[in-house]
Write a structure and sequence with these properties.
Length: 343
Amino acid sequence: MASHRRPKQPSRTRVTVLTTAAAAAVVLSANAANAAPSEKPNKDEVKTKVDKLYEEAEQATEKLDGAKEKQQKLQKQISALQDNVARGQEDLNELRDGLGSMASAQYRTGGIDPSVALFLSSDPDDFLDKASAMDQLSAQQVESLKKVQEKQRSLAQQRAEASAKLKDLADTRAELAKKKKEVQSKLGSAQKLLNTLTAQEKAALATKEQERATRASERVDLGNSKGSGRAGAAFAAAQSVIGSPYVYGASGPSSFDCSGLTSWAYAQAGVTIPRTSEAQANAGTRIYSQSDLQVGDLVIFYGDQHHVGLYAGNGQVLHAPHTGAVVRYEAIGNMPFQFGVRI
């Protein structure tokens, strides 16, 4: 006969725990329902954050430009070294062929002289030591062997230098990829912020930026200052591209970043200056007083020297500001001035 047992009743402790958990869940649900939604940043707050991201992107852009410039220089140096090694190897082969011809001639006339046998050994230094002791070297043989030794050493040095530069190039390319990713990340974050705005807010910001660009693109009062010489020619070149868009990594002729504009402008005047703002800061004589600046002088901004423009006179600078902006005039006091640079 089957047994009939009473179902086991939950313990008082278990009931208490379950009741408490259920009550907590109800409270949390109520709090979540009553909590005020997080406030969406307004248009001005978004603009401030976006401007900050653009500045950070520009900092990374200057590092990116520097890595690009270094990569180009390394590629040229490596190419030159490889060409030198190839030519040097041809010269060395010719020297060795000459030694081989000497040995062949001696063999045909009755055998190879001991000095020539040593001469063709794989260790020229060892040969010199032994042959010198045997007093078996002619002046011509000494000269020929020295040329072989010098060429071998030169080739070894050039190969080592090329190998080191190839490693440096690999590291530079990795840095280039890292900085490019950083720039894109900053710009992507800025775009996400802008995407939180309504169509009307976006239009208002765009209109404001367009009005600012239009005002800045018009010829401002530059006073009586006039550029002269190469600096004046560089400034005139920069004036010719007012209204061109800022594009990170660009150096003309239709778009620019800050140092891309200044390096391009000076190139139009026949002067080569470094590609990045940090390097341009050391490209000439520093001018620490704004009152001493002349039209066409470089103007360096921010403590880390990540922004540069051209002095336009009357307290104005002509520059490529940031992503979303165009080449334009701006009051020099709108940014933290560090010093000028006279090329």
